[in-house]
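Help!! Second protein's tokens look totally different from the first
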Amino acid sequence: MQKYARIAGILFLLSIIGGGLGEFYIPSKLIVSGNATATANNIRQFDFLFRLGFATYLIEGICDVALSWIMYVLLRPVHKNLALLAAFFGLVSTAVFAVAELFYFAPLFILNGVGLQTFSPGQLDSLALLSLRFYGYGGMLFVVFYGIATAIRGYLIFRSGYLPKFIGILLGIGGAGFILKSFTLALAPTYSSGVLLLPMSLGGVTLLVWLLVKGIDVSKLEARVGTAVSP
């Protein structure tokens, strides 16, 4: 179990790096809000960087699938069914975000004009930017699934005894922020602030550092399950 905790920490680190590059840093360097021509020119000029943004997401997605299983194993001693429910929500969140990522990749085909000969270059640029907007909104609308998974994990960590309660609280708040972000974006976009995402960042970084440095309290885990747990 201690080895699983260390592996979870490494996967969280890779996921955060991949997500930070693929979902925020690289798109921010290429996408010019409201300017389809500038965005299209950036994608054409920095084709490899744009593709790298998608590749880093693939790393994040692979890590997130593995994390759904490992977090289930780590939290199963607290409540098996809730840990399994969190794993299901985690897998669904990865799957639906993967669909959103297709809209990120689509401009590579749109700007090549394959099968779109009736569109002018300006129209193709606009379609590419529209696809990227779908990507952005799609990703944010469906973080609700990841938020629910994180909130459940936060509750289980709080109840575990072998992981710190304060991390459970941070993850619970972070999960609630993701849920609110999705619903406010759908119902009241004006109030859908990026601030709602900050608690998740704090909780996620705190958890990964703890898992890498401290891991789990094996003695308390053994006391909970009533059997010796291999470190």
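Here's the second one for comparison:
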Amino acid sequence: MMLLTGAAATPLAVDAQQAERLRRIGVLMPTEANDPESALRFAAFKQGLQQFGWGDDRVQIDYRWAGGNTEKARQYAVELIALDPDVIFALGNYSVAPVLQATRTVPIVFAVVPDPVGAGFVESLARPGGNATGLILIEYSVSAKWLELLKQMAPSVTRVAVMRDTAIVSGIGQFGAIQSVSPSFGVELTPVNVQDPRDIERAVTAFASAQNGGLIVTVSASAAAHRKLIIGLAARHKLPAIYHEHFYVKDGGLMSYGPSIVDQCKRAAAFVDKILKGVKPAELPVQAPTKYELVINMKTAKALGLTVPPALLTRADEVIE
């Protein structure tokens, strides 16, 4: 009887496994689909899912790329919700805000969000309280670190243009953190909005007309979308610049300091895994970055006539020759 029962149960278990419902994940990225960095981030997210057993045979991923365009982000957020996903992964404020406007019921996992509390995405980091949770990008204190590192790299800098997006709460917060320490470094700040490429070029060109200038590019989807323009302007006007992410430096920027966004995309898969297994976003505390990187481009430093201090080289996680 036991043997017969076991033999009968086996096909039922196999049938149940085969009949498992294909889960659906929506992904909204703020960058362009053909951006090499976009491919790295999406690949890291998929790799994270696969490590938790969510391969192509168990999940269907619908993705959209907003390219730094707010109207596209809103349109794609509505499209993704209409597909009835089990969870949505959204990267950056420009992606998270329109998704939350479109739904307060579908679970949302975010990454690369500087201030989810200030932006109204969650009630608190420990208790998100709604349908969204994920990973913060930076603490505002890191913004002050950018000015410190820039002065170490280029001590003659006394004027700094701070590129930030005033349309997001974190853009104002990051500028405020830099402003709070600028007197101690003897630096005068000039805010520059990064939403429109024409405004960027005009503002940077005007700023560079005087000597001893430098550049800080804060975290925003707009800055990432226009990074080739920004890096090109810094090179043209001989402005030492610091960025928040390594891909700016790989594209020719001088230096960067900040968390690994690729690592955040991979870690986001752990949130998705828990949600697909029944845990509610409100029960998953927002997590902080665990991996920070200092990256220096030696070729760019040489082009700017800068000698990289040995202390910075020793601290660097990556040096691009």
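Reply: Different proteins will give different token patterns, so don't panic. Residues 141-259+293-320 form a domain with the Rossmann fold fold (CATH 3.40.50.2300).
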